[in-house]
Every structure is written in C-alpha cells, then in structure tokens.
C-alpha cells in the first residue's frame, strides 16, 4: 500500500479520557533520567510523592496513541519512520488525578518526492475535563523515509532562521542511562525499535534507540535545571519546538548548548561524538 493523503487526514483516533497518578508522574521522571542522584534536591520533588512536582514535558505521553502508523491501512512503511519534529505548548499545570481528555488528529500530509520520503504531521489537544480548558497542545511530524512519491502535494522548503554565531550562554551534559529506552517505553510508546535488537537492526540501527520524545524531555530538563540558578522555575515553561536530526543510543551522553535571549532559549543537543541529535531548538518561558 501507499499513502493516501485524504485517508490520513480523515484518520479517526479514539478520544482518550485519563487521569495520571503520582506513580505515573514519578515513572515518567525516572524514565527521563531524574533521580540518578537520589540526594539531588533539585530532582527529588519529581520522583518523591511527599512533595511531588510534575515535569511539564510529561504532556507528550498523556493520551499518546502509540505507534498508530503501524496500521497497514495508513499505507506507511512504519519500520522506516522517524520522528522529525516536535512542539509542545503549555497552557496549564499537569496535576495528578485530575480527569483529562486527549483528542488526536492528522493535520498535514506532505509528499517530499520519490526517494525523499513524506512528512505526516499530527496534533493532540489535552484538556481539563471539568473546565474544558486546554492544558497542553502538541504537534509531531513523522518523517516517513520510504513513502515519498505517492502523488501528494509538494511544498517549497520554508526559510530557516539564522542560528546564533556566538558561543552558547550555557551548556549542560547529562549521561543517558543504558536502560533509559526500556524505562521510558513504559509511559506508553511501545514501538519495538526501542527494545528489540532485531527490529532496530531491520530499521538500520546498530541497537535499539532512545525515544525521540525522551531525548526531547532530557534537553528540556537540562535547560530548566540550568536556568534555575537564574530563578527560572519549571512552571515558567511556555513552549518548546525542536527538530530531530539523529537518534540517541541509550548509554550515550547528551550535551545541550543554550543561547538565551531573555525569555527565549535557543538550543542544540549533541552526543559525545559531536553528532547533532536535536537542532533548531526553541524554548520559550512565560512572557517570551
């Protein structure tokens, strides 16, 4: 089968009603790597129920439909799919045991051309059931490497904002646990490319890779924890957007360089070998 843009744009996702628990919030934080030093007072509130705080990036796993693109009816060659881009807009705090409703939709399908792949953009809204207010909005872009040339619309490449030429204002190095992908997948994304060596090899990787959304969360925490020395709080996060350039392997170190411009932080993350894995990062704080 091949991609049919109209069919994907009309793809029906179930509405997901949920309420995450304190345990869920702690499991998410542990999967992102917090608590490696259990005496770290900056990380302890996210992994200890007595004064629990919730990472705002946890929104990316709430109501996540999992690898829905594995359904043969999508026409997508799922084993060749990579996570291309991710955005997160925070509208309110995440609170355990509060009923939430998640709705999902495909918003765009772009044909890059034969041999160049396709882009499928899909979005999720998370709302407080009792008030109807948005808690978070998310948009993900799937890079379908083997699905270009299906006859869909092609678009010119958008202009890219010039990257800062100065040295980073801050940097943060965090080591990814060798079992990070096995922990993180328990949040709901059970794609076997993150756990099964054979599936990873079939997809062209030397071993199972880390979820892009885990790398995304590690970078966000790297920034927020670094800026805490300047009085920035986790709840100050307003939005984040990033491009995924390459996968991270569990066990690698992630270096996040930051260029702060007031309430805006542009960032880029690399692995120990200097390979860029997150690019064009744009994090906004409240007021930015």
TrEMBL record:
MaoC-like domain mapped to chain residues: 174-276
Domain Peroxisomal multifunctional enzyme type 2-like N-terminal as annotated: residue spans: 20-145
Protein name: MaoC/PaaZ C-terminal domain-containing protein
Lineage: Bacteria, Bacillati, Actinomycetota, Actinomycetes, Propionibacteriales
Species of origin: Nocardioides astragali
Family: Belongs to the enoyl-CoA hydratase/isomerase family.
InterPro entries for the chain: HotDog_dom_sf (IPR029069), MaoC-like_dom (IPR002539), MFE-2_N (IPR054357)
């Amino acid at each position: 089968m091949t991609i049919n843009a109209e069919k994907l744009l009309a793809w029906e996702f179930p509405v997901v009603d949920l309420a995450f628990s304190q345990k869920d919030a702690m499991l998410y934080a542990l999967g992102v790597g917090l608590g490696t030093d259990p005496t770290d007072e900056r990380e302890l509130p996210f992994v200890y129920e007595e004064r629990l705080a919730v990472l705002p990036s946890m929104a990316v796993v709430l109501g996540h439909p999992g690898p829905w693109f594995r359904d043969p009816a999508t026409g997508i060659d799922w084993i060749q799919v990579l996570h291309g881009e991710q955005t997160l807009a925070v509208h309110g705090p995440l609170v355990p045991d509060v009923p939430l409703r998640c709705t999902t939709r495909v918003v765009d399908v772009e044909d890059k051309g034969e041999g160049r792949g396709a882009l499928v953009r899909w979005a999720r809204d998370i709302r407080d059931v009792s008030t109807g207010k948005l808690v978070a909005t998310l948009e993900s872009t799937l890079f379908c490497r083997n699905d270009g040339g299906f006859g869909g619309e092609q678009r010119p490449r958008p202009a890219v904002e010039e990257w800062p030429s100065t040295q980073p204002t801050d940097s943060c190095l965090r080591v990814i646990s060798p079992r990070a992908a096995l922990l993180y997948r328990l949040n709901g994304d059970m794609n076997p490319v993150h756990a099964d060596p054979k599936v990873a090899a079939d997809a062209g990787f030397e071993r199972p890779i880390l979820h892009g959304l885990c790398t995304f969360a590690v970078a966000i925490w790297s920034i927020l924890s670094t800026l805490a020395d300047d009085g920035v709080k986790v709840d100050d996060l307003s939005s984040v957007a990033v491009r995924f350039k390459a996968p991270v392997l569990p066990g690698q170190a992630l270096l996040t360089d930051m260029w702060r411009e007031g309430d805006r932080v542009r960032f880029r993350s690399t692995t120990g070998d200097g390979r860029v894995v997150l690019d064009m990062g744009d994090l906004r704080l409240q007021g930015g």
